[in-house]
Amino acid sequence: LAKTTQPISMDSYEGQEVNITCSHNNIATNDYITWYQQFPSQGPRFIIQGYKTKVTNEVASLFIPADRKSSTLSLPRVSLSDTAVYYCLVGAMNRDDKIIFGKGTRLHILP
Amino acid sequence: DGGITQSPKYLFRKEGQNVTLSCEQNLNHDAMYWYRQDPGQGLRLIYYSQIVNDFQKGDIAEGYSVSREKKESFPLTVTSAQKNPTAFYLCASSSRVEGYTFGSGTRLTVV
User: Fold this and answer.
1) pLDDT tens-digit series, residues A31-56
2) SS3 B45
3) pLDDT computed for residue A16 by the predictor
4) Contact B54/B67 with Cβ under 8 angstroms?
5) Set of chain B residues whose Cβ sits within 8 Å of the Cβ of A94
6) Most exposed of A3, A66, A107, B38 (fewest Cβ within 10 Å)?
């Protein structure tokens, strides 16, 4: 299972773009990169998933360089409600594999 | 709507008691998981099950037990052997296509 490294915490201001980078140097060929968001006293919820290059949905973008050893979650124009913990996970989603959650990145949006 | 339901939302346990946390899913997912989360920490895997009537220990299985008699259900029992059970417990299920879906959690407190 690929280990991931993320910043422990980040602060930003409303309206700004926030980029959270995750390192996963030993990512395997079959591994996907998935980001989850967790609010206090709630379960994590899926944000975005990708394998390579760029993926965009209505919530975020995910940038993955060619070597796939890192990835960047981009949140455009954040609001106070984006204050949460963000987890980067790496694993092969084509099998029912246990995936290890790290401590995530605690994002704090300031007014 | 398909989803995963945890109950109760809050649970209080006396010293020496066993308590059981419920987790039910109607997503037709094969795999189910139990995680423990302590304040300011990430998720730690307690037990997981990839198929009915089979389950494996995670990283912190001591003091916990599970069963998987039905595909939809994966109850977790916190036994008296768990010396520090106060925590937030999250249940999740996953499929090869849809990834992880989490429940809303059960907060267990020892009184």
Assistant:
1) 889 999 999 989 999 999 999 999 99
2) strand
3) 97
4) no
5) 96
6) A66
Residue A109's pLDDT band (boundaries 50, 70, 90)?
very high
Give chain A's contact residues with B (Cβ, < 8 Å): 34, 36, 41-46, 49, 87, 93-96, 98-104
Report which residue type is found at B79: T
Q: Are A105 and A49 in contact (CB under 8 A)?
A: no
Q: Nearest-CA neighbor of B35 among B111, B97, B93?
A: B93
What's the whole-number mean pLDDT along residues B69-83?
Answer: 95
Task: List chain A residues with CB under 8 Å of B44.
Answer: 101
Does the pLDDT at position A96 exceed 80? no
User: Closest chain B residue to A93 measured between Cα atoms?
Assistant: B96
Q: Are B41 and B28 in contact (CB under 8 A)?
A: no
Mean pLDDT confidence for B96-105: 85
H-assigned helices in A31-94: none
Q: How distant is the Cα of B73 from the closest Cα of chain A, in angstroms? A: 17
Side chain identity at A77, as an amino acid letter?
R
CB-neighbour burial class of residue A63 (10 A; exposed 0-12, middle 13-18, buried 19+) = middle
> Taking 70 as the threshold, does the pLDDT of residue B57 lie above it?
yes
Terminal Cα distance for chain A, rounded:
38
Residue B103 corresponds to which amino acid? G
Cβ contact B42–A45 (<8 Å): no
Amino acid A95: pLDDT: 55
Nearest to A103 by CA among A13, A28, A36: A36
